[in-house]
Every structure is written in C-alpha cells, then in structure tokens.
C-alpha cells in the first residue's frame, strides 16, 4: 500500500505515439530520376493508459497498426515520436528496466521445433533465470491448465497443431511472471475449443496473478468477453475508447443494447467494417 500519498505509476502510459515507415521507391523511370519514397504512418498520435489489473483491448483490422504498437511497447521497435512508460520507466531510455516487467505473445511465435513443448519451456525458463525444478513445476502446471499435459508436453513442437503451439507460447510468457503481458492476436488461427481454453486461461491469470494485460485482436466477441476497456485503432489512429458497454451505448441511437454488437460500434465509429478496413489497408 502506498502510505506517502504519492501517485503510483500506471502499468502502461502511451502518449502521442507515432511510427512512420518508408515505402520502397519505385524503379527508376528515366535516367537520373526516381519517384519519391512514400511514407506510411503505422501509428499516428496514439494515446491511452492501462490501469493495474486491467485487460485493455486494442481492436482493429489487420494492418491497422496493432502489431507495430506491441513491438514498440515491448522495446523491440523505436517510435518516431511520443513516449511509452511502463510502471514509470521510459521504454526507450530505460529499456533494460522495462524488459523484466513484461512479456509478449505474438501471432506467430518462434520455438525450437525439434524440441518438445516441455523442453522449450525448460530452456526459456532458465533464460528467464528460474531454477530447473521451479521451471519444470511451473511448466507442468501451466501446460496442464491449457490441456497440453502428458504425451502432448513431450511431443516435438513439429508435431503439434497451430493451436497447440500457440498455447505453448502463452505458457512460455507466463513463466517469467510478468507484471504486464502483451498479447498480440493470441487466438488467431485457433480452433474454437483451443480459443476458449486460451481465453479462459488469460482471464484466470488476470484474476489469480493480478497481471495487467494488453490484448490486440480483430475478434469483436473476444474483446467484449475479455476486456475491461477497448480502444478502436483504424489507419494508425485511436478513434474511440471505453468499456464495451459505454461504446455500445454511444452508438445505440435508441436501439436496445442487446441488438448492438461491437462490430456495429466499429462500423459506426470508423465508417466501415473490419473487412473493409483490412481491404483499404492492403490497398494502401
């Protein structure tokens, strides 16, 4: 408990975050002249805060800037403008202090594929500084919770399904006991049962471990089920933020709330559906 009256730093504070990528120049059209490089703003002045123990969802189409955001938050990519603070530490200037506080699950995690799930977890657990017995005990408990105990835990990763591999990625992230967990599309490509198991595990981790979670997704029902608050990201800009209920009320316009889904909210606030947003991003 804070007895000094000082404000405790938030798990995550993002201020005016901007990241621009240069697009390759077109081939030379005539001697000595090229078309100028185009620039694309993956993030354009994004600001939000995440509170302790909260699951904050970032919703948007593929290509809207969600993965770029997570890479910056996890200190893997430098922003062009703006700032990120993780529990009070500057993610650019104090990256060495930030990294032990968080972990990340990407949509396409990397493993030592010939090794088993348990062997991968034992290896990464030791990298995180855990003792062998502690890693084995924690790994077995997490894998069992995710339905990957017994033979599955000893199977080479090459033999596991896409959904099973993603479960191992989630288990690996929790080994380091992060205070902030960044989940970048963690259930994409999973079958319905695996998706439910991962979603349930994420909810229980927040409840039982008090971990703060940032979740990116384009699955509206997943966001409404898991997230305390959500922000809509479209073309690199945060266009709306609030609880799912607040956002549904915002666009209801007299309709019963049970008839207003998060997809309706997205369409109302961005002027297009997730699919249309993805098509525009791809065209861009």
Which secondary structure elements does this structure contain, and how are they paired or packed?
Blueprint: E1 12-22, E2 39-50, E3 55-59, H1 66-73, E4 81-86, E5 89-90, H2 95-98, E6 102-105, H3 117-127, H4 132-145, H5 151-154, H6 162-175, E7 180-184, H7 192-209, E8 212-217, H8 220-226, E9 229-234, E10 237-242, H9 244-252, H10 262-270, H11 274-283
Parallel strand pairs: 3-8, 3-9, 6-7, 7-8
Antiparallel strand pairs: 1-2, 1-4, 4-5, 9-10
Would you kindly provide a written description of the structure presented here, covering whatever features stand out?
- Helix content is 38%, strand content 22%.
- It contains eleven helices and ten strands.
- It has helices spanning 66-73, 95-98, 117-127, 132-145, 151-154, 162-175, 192-209, 220-226, 244-252, 262-270, 274-283; strands at residues 12-22, 39-50, 55-59, 81-86, 89-90, 102-105, 180-184, 212-217, 229-234, 237-242.
- It has a six-stranded mixed beta sheet with strand order 6-7-8-3-9-10, sandwiched between helices.
- Strand 9 and strand 10 (237-242) form a beta hairpin.
- Helix 3 runs parallel beside helix 6 (162-175).
- The longest helix has 18 residues, at 192-209.
């Amino acid at each position: 408990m804070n007895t000094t009256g000082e404000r405790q730093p938030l798990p995550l504070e993002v201020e005016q975050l901007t990241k621009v990528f240069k697009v390759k120049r077109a081939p030379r059209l005539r001697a000595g002249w090229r078309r100028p490089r185009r620039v694309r703003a993956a993030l354009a002045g994004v600001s939000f805060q995440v509170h302790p123990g909260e699951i904050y969802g970032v919703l948007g189409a593929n290509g809207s800037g969600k993965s770029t955001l997570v890479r910056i938050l996890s200190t893997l990519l430098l922003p062009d403008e703006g700032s990120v603070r993780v529990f009070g530490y500057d993610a650019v200037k104090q990256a060495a202090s930030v990294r032990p506080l968080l972990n990340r699950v990407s949509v396409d995690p990397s493993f030592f594929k010939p090794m088993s799930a348990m062997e991968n977890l034992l290896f990464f657990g030791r990298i995180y500084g855990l003792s062998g017995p502690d890693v084995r005990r924690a790994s077995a408990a997490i894998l069992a919770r995710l339905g990957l105990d017994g033979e599955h835990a000893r199977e080479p990763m090459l033999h596991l399904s896409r959904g099973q591999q993603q479960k191992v990625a989630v288990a690996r992230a929790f080994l380091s006991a992060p205070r902030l967990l960044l989940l970048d599309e963690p259930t994409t490509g999973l079958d319905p049962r695996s998706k439910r198991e991962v979603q349930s595990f994420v909810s229980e981790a927040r409840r039982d471990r008090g971990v703060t979670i940032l979740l990116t997704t384009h699955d509206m029902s997943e966001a409404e089920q898991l997230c305390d608050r959500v922000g809509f990201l479209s073309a690199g800009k945060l266009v709306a933020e609030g609880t799912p209920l607040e956002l549904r009320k915002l666009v209801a316009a007299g309709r019963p709330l049970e008839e207003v889904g998060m997809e309706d909210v997205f369409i109302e606030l961005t002027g297009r559906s997730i699919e249309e947003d993805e098509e525009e991003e791809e065209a861009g």
